[in-house]
Amino acid sequence: MDGSERNPDAAASGLTGAEALALFGGFRAGEVWPAGLNLLAVSRTDSTNSLARRLLARLEEEGEPVSDFLLLACEQTEGRGRGGRRWESPAGAGVYVTRVLRLPPGAAAVELPLRVPVALCAGLDELLGGRCRIKWPNDLLVSGRKLGGVLIEVLRCGEEEIALIGFGLNYRLAGAACNLPAATSFTAEVDQPLPLPAFAARMVTAVESELARLGPEPGLAARFRRWLVHAPGDEMRVRSGDELIHGRFVGLDDWGHLRLATAAGELAIATGEILE
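RESULT FIELD:
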């Protein structure tokens, strides 16, 4: 699969993947994208993670092998974030990506929620003068306002475990996002922003560099902690499933679980959302 192949979503608008990439910014893939990475670009889709699921299902139905690839959309009509919430994804206003990754032997899916936010935060931080931080578990903040987020799903295709690594980054604020005081964008934070295609390629490259390190790493959680916006003692309200938990931030364990001091004692929370 490569960017020149016709695909279900691009075909609806009469575009090949290469044509959609040209619409995205006029860059040939080899000029800015990581070498050797299969790229499928579409002008519009519901969400890149959903499209990835459909493509994988089709490959499985046809008995075709799965290869790693990257999905890039110029626009998402049903972009989603944590908890199934809508992620505003207007055309040309952001980076909307899903990296489809066959997990290699020895790599654990639990690494990804640590590695991917670290990669993006570090990449953004270089461009934003040291102002990017992670809000647990995977929101990317600049001076306290959200610039992006990560959505990771894991599924099985035959005997293989496949990770769908989705991430969205605001390049400029558009549509409903303009009215969100807690939102920001790359162009709002820098005086001379990179063009959107170059910005997208830079973020993809940062993630690819981190994925190349997959495997046991004793210091991974410590690297994640370094980028956290939270400080010990911060009061928090955390929604985990149907439960609302009040407490003070203690830190993270080695799996990236949130450690919270509560009236009932210290809790380790694997998944959830910190409420404002």
